[in-house]
Amino acid sequence: MRLSPGSLLARMTLAPVVAVAAWSLVAFPLLCLGVLTPLTGLLLGAPAVVAALALVPRLAPPVDDTPWWPTALVVLVAVAFAAVQLAYHSEQLVIRRDAASYAQYTAWIADNGFLPIPQRRELIAGDDPALTYDSLAYYQVDEVVWPQFLAGAPLVYAVGFWIAGLDGMVLVPPVVGALGVLTFAGLTARLVGARWAPLAALVLAVCLPQQWVSRSTYSEPVAQVLLLGGLVLAYDALTRQERGRSSAGRVLAAAAGLALGLGLLVRIDVLRDLLPVVGFVGLLLLARRREAVPMAAGLAVGVGYGLVAGFGLSRPYLDYLSDSLNPLLILSAAVVAATAAAVLALWRRGVPRLDRPSWLPAAFAVLVVVATAGLALRPLLITQRGHGNAITANYIGQVQQIEGLAVDPDRTYEEMSLNWVGWYVGPAAVLLATLGVALLARRTALLRDPKWALPLMVLVWTVATTLLRPAITPDHPWASRRLVTLVLPAFVLFAVYFLAWADRRLRDRSARWPTWLRPAAAALGAVALLAPTAATATGIMTYRMDVGSIAATERTCAEIPDNASVLIVEPNTASKFMQLVRGMCGVPTAYVDPPDPPTVRRLVAEVHARGRDAVLAADRAEALEPYLPPGVDPTHPFDVHTEQDPSTLMEPPSGAWRFNGDLWIAVIPER
User: Fold this and answer.
1) Angstrom distances, CA of residue 361 to CA of 230, 283, 357, 364, 449
2) Of 542, 574, 597, which residue is a domain's last?
3) Are the C-beta atoms of residues 624 and 667 closer than 8 Å to each other?
4) DSSP characters for 67-114?
5) pLDDT tens sequence across 559-595
6) S-S: 433 plus which of 261, 494, 582, 618, CB 3.0-4.6 Å?
7) How many structural domains does the chain have?
């Protein structure tokens, strides 16, 4: 049967979240059991994805009043986005920041199928106290090493590794980023209207942070698909119920809860974003909606996956975050308890009325405007300080010197968070989004737009908490990561909503205005959103980061004997390269501390005594010279000098910095 444009748009924008959720649901237990392999992925994961895609999207109700052209334009925007990001994809493998950490995580589980990572110290020098095994984003715990982050994104990127190795792995994020744009278009089509979906998708696709994170193995693209897709599924679930398909609505509701909960499998801070979902489930229970229990069950399963991933496979990372995570866990438990108590207390009375007293809806709208004004004025009133991390403070001081700013290493720049949004989507988007949220807050309180209830709760809460405390090293584009998953999509969505509302008002009153005014106003609004967004994006969107790293890694692994044990004798090299050598080259690796000649010679003898080849590594040839016997010369297999992301503090990023990646090795023969 031929699909209508509305059905096609609804199904194709639902497919990304269904596929990612189904794969995660199967792949994560395989990783926990230590049997995540291409074969088990093909035999168990692939059928789950195919079955989910065959069942769930067909339950989605069609997007009303959809001609063919919005559907075609949405596809065009998503395909164009993917093509550009594929052309400019990065090759971040040397760990300085999170993208390379996720890449190493992905390569390990794709190649080995289990966690934790064994140190294999018995193949180097046993329990010698001069050896350490931790590095940036990788924690030494007893005789194993645990990766820093959660498993959700590496599980998705591992599929690319299985298909085409490292080259395939780095091509997956651009595709996932494009699926995020497609999913966002589906959410806009449902909430605002299909004719406005191409504009919203285009603004998000052009936006610098959306492009930037989609070029590297960051977690945000996967989280974006799950969270925005969860909102789409929830909308469809409630719409299906209203159209008399209660069983379909319950299936979609369970899928919505699962997708939203699985966001926690990708990023631990998603726990904060899920708090409004708990309250919304409580409202569904009070409204006697049949979708409440399936959504709650799906949410519980997804959150359970995330908690196991965090406390089971990333516990050292969560311990590191304990100062901020523990209060969030307490708050989450309190929200669940308060929601349960409220449902019990209000069970007979039903959903509380927000339109009583009559002034309350207008007060919500005023509160939105006042809160945004407060965020806008914050840089004029306060300067926030206190990273709580000496390394971060030192780096910020260096960037301040480079930019010619007053050196204030403790400054967090958190007061500028709304300015960041203005950099990336323009001041017009901030203004229009504020008006859109104010309007929606009033209309939702008056029960005129119930379909907006969950998106409004989740997005407003996330925007407010993120902008109040971004909690990230504030150089850009790095700090823009905090805005990618939900904050920038929220501003674009609410801005487009206000444009659509204004367009309807002009249409309804067309007799009072010239006929050209309505299309002119729509075009002006589109330009106001697109022009500043595109202008900022041109700053750094024409380079590829760390190009040549894959080839250099392959050269390095080829030069290290299969029977080698690697001793790194320089601390900066150990931080950046240890997991690359250990994981991608598959040889036991450790850092020598202290790296003095007698200690290194003793450890080399220990390696030889185990019948293995000893390899020394550092980032400079001269760093190896004190340890080399006569006739042994170091080689330079990892020799990458290319471009990397800049770091800016007081203006949008523009232009690349240089990246110098060097690894020298020397194979020490046994005498």
Assistant:
1) 27, 18, 8, 5, 13
2) 542
3) no
4) -HHHHHHHHHHHHHHHHHHHHT-----S-SSHHHHHHHHHHHHHHH--
5) 999 999 999 999 999 999 999 999 999 999 999 999 9
6) 494
7) 2
